[in-house]
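so my prof wants the structure for this chain in the tokens format not the other one, which i didnt know existed until like an hour ago. anyway here's the sequence
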Amino acid sequence: MPKILVTGCSSGFGLAIAHTFLQAGWDVAATMRTPRTDLLPDTESLRVIALDVTNAESIIRAVETAGPIDALVNNAGVGMLNVLEGAEMSNVRDLFETNVFGAIALTKAVLPQMRVRGAGVIVNVSSSVTIKPLPALSIYSASKAALNAFTESLALEAALFGVRTRLVLPGSAPTTAFGKNAVARMGMEIPQPYSAFVHDYLTALRTGTEVTTPEDVAQAVWRAVTEPDAPMRSPVGADAQTWFRETGHPVA
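here's what i got, hopefully its the right format
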């Protein structure tokens, strides 16, 4: 059976992606910062592995434990909702360590085996904030824009050896704990001059009817991994697809 390594599987998108590939008969290496065995089916096809993508030794151990893989999904990430003046630089660096440097480091760790084998797929979970600028998300957007540029440039190198890279761009996913986790980890002390502006934006965001579900993302990742002609960028969810069309791009 083919094997996939998915990061950030303790909830949300990562958990749904792991479920989807298990149900399709793949072997799955599901990584979590704090491993839990009660989230996914008890099957020989599953291996839950501890991984902190910001720690070099943790990456080495996880890749060794997973063994040869056919696909990598860099899904682990952290959000930040704040205006620039309200963002602590220590949190900015922490966010980039996870969203950008962690994905780069893990990709660098698995790419040699794919290059030697002459096959493999790397899917990076980005965000629809790279399609349409939104307020109070400048830091988060910058991290995802960097991930996009990395993925698209790497594609040119990896293609020399039969390895594909792809991006999925999810929209807002209110059913996940992503926003709550972001506030808990990064804080949300909005400077007073911006408070009314951010409040109005959040109110509009919460009343939106077009959203993204974890299942939407899992299906998009499935297509990116299994369909060689999948587009480089796949907007995921009704909101992301609407924004993609508004920029003049067709949705595959």
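also thought this was worth mentioning. The mean pLDDT is 93.
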